Amino acid sequence: MKVSDGAASVELDDATLVDRVRDGDVRAYEQLVLRYQGAMFRLASRMVADRSEAEDIVQEAFLTAWRRIGQLQDDNAFAGWLYRMTTNRCLNVLRARQIPADVDPDSTESPRTDTRPEHAAQVNSQLEALTAALQELTPEQRACWLLREVHGRSYEEIGEIVGTNPTAVRGRIARARAQLAEVMKPWR
Length: 188
What we know:
Elements lengths: L1 E4 L2 E4 L2 H9 L3 H23 L2 H18 L9 H19 L20 H20 L2 H12 L4 H8 L3 H18 L5
Antiparallel strand pairs: 1-2
């Protein structure tokens, strides 16, 4: 949400928006949704490898956040809180599955199409291999790796999101990196 003061407009921070949401400001919540929906969808779609399930997960996370915004202790912690809700929903979906889901190529963003066709084909193959390799990780390793490598979260934040300590997060990420590096060797 931007506030205009003459010629300049100022982007409101999460804490201000959360405070306004608590006061019933629906437009402030819409701004939070717009700010985070892309990141939450990318996280969910890569974790569950199913576009439809990812959309449902993100919708549920935002709906829960709206309903429980009063329970958020620190207005500045909204992003971490939302990451935690989204990640936990993804882990629940993955745990409920009996067998790993087939990889849906539509669940990841497509590479640029304005490049040479042979390069585009190679990039597509690499993305398919990475997506398949991610599905071979444990759900906890996948969550930690995605939160660190794709979403740039700190080890401490990831620990809070997945409910473990930073040392365990480092271990999960190290194992995930080793496994992914082995699978992706042919692409180096």
